[in-house]
UniProtKB/TrEMBL annotation, chains A, B:
List of residues binding phosphate: R96
Pfam families linked to this entry: Semialdhyde_dh, Semialdhyde_dhC
Stated name of the protein: Aspartate-semialdehyde dehydrogenase
Homology family: Belongs to the aspartate-semialdehyde dehydrogenase family.
Species of origin: Oceanithermus profundus (strain DSM 14977 / NBRC 100410 / VKM B-2274 / 506)
Length: 328, 328
């Protein structure tokens, strides 16, 4: 299969290349595209050097285009790529809310991917990491209300976000002025409850993505979900604290049993051994860690749990490659 | 008034000295006590040098003892200090759940302090920071269910916790091995959903403190509260994301109006100007910042809000001095 990656030199693009290698995706030809600034760079794929090309304004000769170059590029170019015969797996938010475009997590709604019309959307990272754990619980016990607070890594803002955390932390430690460019405020040793733009209803777009996208992926347009999305000074795995009310009787033990069997999930829930989900252990992992599974103390028949998942993998590159695998 | 500080060289002890100065507390004599390791150090109070003494195993000649030397010391010595005539304001958890001991936030239940029998307990930092914002909303609209996820600074583990974050972050940045001693896992660029010991019900003691203490301070023994307490790599202000269901009709505007008038609270809620609570802005402030006030999207008649408050001030030293002020 001829594969193209658009945005190949970004944080997600680099992971896409690695994930294609590690999952032994049947690539007959790989072409890498990026902005003029990054074109000309050499990247190694399966031991061979590949030169990064400038993203063309027209068709790309590929069977699958894995796009991770931002919403503007995808909005404009994905229709051109798909009308030239490629299936586009798009990592931006440009197409996620289009009723004609399936929004897919392979563990949840693979059948939607197969009904594509040329473009398949990859969900927001925070949504994907929560959904992969929430879905098996929803199927088993019927989730009615979901409240989630996030602990999101700087990788969500791309490679520049991670670099800003590292550089500005160094400045902080050495007593130099601490600046910010990628984030709205200095991120070292800080917490910023603001990711993406604020909406009329007081929620950020990042928070609304979790609402809109979970409903679409689950096929539950009325599901009651609320989110607080918070940027914290970590590098690349997102964590989330979830409270979920269910319609059918649930216990932590029953939930744990369901999650143990669920694809894409690793139950890490041995508090007595200090084992629970953490960015430190979730980074680089394909599965999303789920733990701290317990009865919520405020609501009847409700659970709390905590997830950590690699924002660049299940939250982006891994899920995109898994979608491409559905097309084989 | 003769004041003694026990644990005077710890993170909270140092803030106690500063807060006594800044609030012009009528101190006629100040004596400072600490463990033998710290005794002999010199500390400046109102421009005068004071020598730190070893905490005695018996009575302390003071009218008020501000104790911040850990639960073990307080459990054993607070009754001796109070029976010798001092009122003990204790910052540990040793006495908080004793029905004879008032647990006090001056903005909420000052009358309880006045009914003391020699010992007054200062609440857990996470509880205090949430409660000061929750109480006025509870009075106005009747809170029925509270779900909170915390973003807790390393200062909650004392000066050693903050030092470990700084030292190990430096190690991380310079490519050296990253260790941990104060925390259960390395804290730089990580998130640890584990503060204090795990209980039978799957919650940590830190999480249960928020439940137990909020109920006691509010005089609402049945209030439905659930908490996820999470340590993050910040230095000294705690943040918390709260979802609160109310029995009487509430709107974000009405809540904001109530909070604007509430003591101990600063409404920081102008998302359009990128203003919301953050550790960066809450550090060093007496008031707790409250913002991101909005209608919760999952529940009817419910609000979400975000708070940041200085763990060492309203979460510890400031509240203790405010309690002492009630005794004047």
């Amino acid at each position: 299969m001829r594969v193209a990656i658009v945005g190949a030199t970004g944080a997600v693009g680099k992971e896409l290349i690695k994930v294609l290698e590690e999952r032994d995706f049947p690539v007959s030809e790989l072409r890498l595209f990026a902005s003029p600034r990054s074109a000309g760079k050499t990247v190694t794929f399966r031991g061979e050097p590949l030169t990064v090309e400038v993203t063309p304004e027209g068709p790309i000769p590929a069977d699958v285009v894995l796009a991770s170059a931002g919403g503007g590029v995808s909005k404009k170019l994905a229709p051109l790529w798909s009308s030239a015969g490629a299936v586009v797996v798009d990592n931006s938010s440009a197409w996620r809310y289009d009723p004609e475009v399936p929004l897919v997590i392979p563990e949840i709604n693979p059948e939607s991917a197969r009904a594509h019309q040329g473009i398949i959307a990859n969900p927001n990272c925070t949504t994907a990491i929560l959904a992969v754990a929430l879905w098996p619980l929803h199927k088993a016990f019927g989730a009615t209300h979901v409240v989630v607070s996030t602990y999101q890594a700087t990788s969500g803002a791309g490679a520049e976000g991670m670099q800003e955390l590292l550089d500005e932390t160094r400045n902080h430690l050495e007593g130099r002025p601490v600046g910010h460019k990628v984030f709205q405020h200095p991120i070292p040793f800080n917490v910023i409850p603001h990711i993406d733009a604020f909406q009329e209803n007081g929620y950020t777009r990042e928070e609304m993505k979790v609402v809109w996208e979970t409903r679409k992926i689950f096929g539950e347009p009325e599901m009651k979900i609320s989110c607080t999305a918070v940027r914290i000074p970590t590098l690349r795995a997102h964590s989330e604290a979830a409270t979920v009310l269910f319609e059918r009787p649930v216990t932590p033990e029953a939930a744990r049993a369901v999650l143990e069997e669920a694809p894409g999930v690793e139950v890490v829930d041995e508090p007595e051994r200090n084992r629970y989900p953490m960015p430190l252990s979730a980074t680089g992992k394909w599965d999303v860690e789920v733990g701290r599974i317990r009865k919520n103390l405020a609501f009847g028949n409700a659970l709390d749990f905590f997830v950590s998942g690699d924002q660049l993998l299940k939250g982006a590159a891994l899920n995109a490659v898994q979608i491409a695998e559905l097309l084989l």
